[in-house]
Amino acid sequence: MSDPLTDIDALADEYWAHYLDTYPTEAHLLGDYAKAGRFEQASRAAEDREIDALREFARRADAFDDGALDEKQRITRAVLAADATSKADLLEARLAEIAPADPIFGMQVSMPIVTGMLALPTAEVAEALADTYRGVAAHYRDQVERLREGKARGWLPAAFAVEDTVKQIDAILDSPVSDDGLLRTTPTPDGFDADAWRARLEEVISSDVRPAMAALRDALRDEVLADARPEDKVGLRWLEGGDAAYDATLRYFTTTTKTAQEIHDLGLAQVEKLADEYRALGPEVVGSDDLATIFDAMRNDPKLHFSNGQDLVDQSEVAMQRAWDAMPDWFETLPQAPCGVAGTMTGPKAFYFPPATDGSRGGTFFVNIDDPDSWGIFELESMAFHEGIPGHHLQLAIAGELQGVPEFRKHIHNSAYAEGWGLYTERLSDEMGLYSGPVDRMGMYAADSMRACRLVVDTGLHALGWSRQQAIDFMVDNSPLKESMCRPEIDRYIVSPGQATSYMVGRVEIQRMRAEAEARQGDGFSIKAFHSAVLDNGSLPLGVLDDVVRTRLP
């Protein structure tokens, strides 16, 4: 029998089982089909139960004596305690009361994408999808109640988010059920009566999901919109208790104790540094070192933009293959799972889905090809390196294939670690000589501009009280993004407070850890060893990662 005072691994297994039970869709995506047919709950009661459970996990983790644990167990204890605490803090911010008004990542946007990723390996799993969709309908109905709870205490979403969500739901409800995005599933098993099954799904969507969506639409339009926050008060600071809620988001997403003002100032410093880099490379790319001229060319020169969506997919595949060929010189461990590229007409501009643990699906870099003209030729390679190789795919696939660590550490997501690594690899790719030329290197600066501006505008909106237009203007003035691209970016930061700060905070911290390791080790420093120290323990809070790097590279 294990010793309860030293068996942190048993607690970690219990924590992971709890996570999969709470997030059955995530379990399905990872290839665990035992919970197929269930869906996440959104009620206040479910949220309270989860907060209590997380607090108890954190308490139990904190009770362990580090002196009785080995190195891997100490890391496990620290990660579990930090993760459970920050998640509980975030849930206690009650952002679920305004979350249903979300035209960027809301259920009406995300579920058709998720549906297309849910493997259906057996008839039983396929049949369970009808129950999953009934759970989706229940989730929508719970969101209605959360909106009402928020309104009762003066917590109301931004008006534009309400209006845009209503429009999206209207468009879905006005379309034929036979065209519903929830019917765009993965292939069914051989010999399965897919037509009869599809008819059963259509009936659930028609009789349960769509009425629940309509109820959410009605609540947003008829109960919330009239009192929703105007354009000049879209940030959390305009809500009672909003400052504390925003602080919780920053702790959760950055895994640091940096204040909003510290993050704001860091962003301003990065913006200033990037201006000098643009001016140095500008003459070679656009024939000028004038920042306004450089930005104008990057926004408007047709020669610097795509016109064909398939080109985005094809060139991403070429870039990632070039990166893969260079991996052995920079990394000790390479993932077994492949990484593919797929075009999509919905969702963010680019995003990544990790492999399934059962090997049924590799990693996938999704590139949005709906509006190819919005893609600068210069930005594609940096995006492919960030989302695919050596970015998120290398990071998440290696984590999923780790041996000798608790399962939850293979899959847990710390945004500052994950996005910080992705952004770090954009600059690393320059060191590796992966960019095709000066134009593509300029795209690396463009990606940095977006992430640096995020620090300024996210904190500006939610801590300093900026208006929606003030944030848009700052990003237009300090990056090569067109205003038409800045607007949805700003809207994303408004409806997802704090998350956008994780990228540059994480990148800066990883770079700091590397610089300090280089200074400690001098000629003995190995970039391969540094990358192993960063990657071979899974996703870590930045403080824990710092300790690991110092231990591994003294």
From TrEMBL:
Superkingdom of origin: Bacteria
Pfam family, one: DUF885
Protein name: DUF885 domain-containing protein
